[in-house]
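Deliverable D4.2, example record:
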Amino acid sequence: MIKLYGLKNCDTCRKALKWLKGEGIQAELHDFRKDGLEAAHLEEWLEQVDWEILLNRKGTTWRSLNDADKLDVDREKVKRLMLENPSLIKRPVFELGDRILVGFKDPEQQALRGFK
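Output generated by the structure prediction step:
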């Protein structure tokens, strides 16, 4: 089973869940707001993908941060900001056993099909 991390009200997460079901792939949603996110879990993700990939700079959460938080961004600062504001994490994040995929575009869909 795939674990999908995101927000239940996120359009992309809902689209991904619907697509997975249509593909016959079992998935479970872990909602950041309801279920939280542990620092150790985020650290595992940051060991697998660059923080630039995991950071959602297009969302309203990023835009609503104060200017000081947006300056001099590095891995540790991003980690702190993501733990304080999990909606800063690009969604969805798929856990496929020991690896993750971030986002839901064609490359991620192809990889998910191969996970069956």
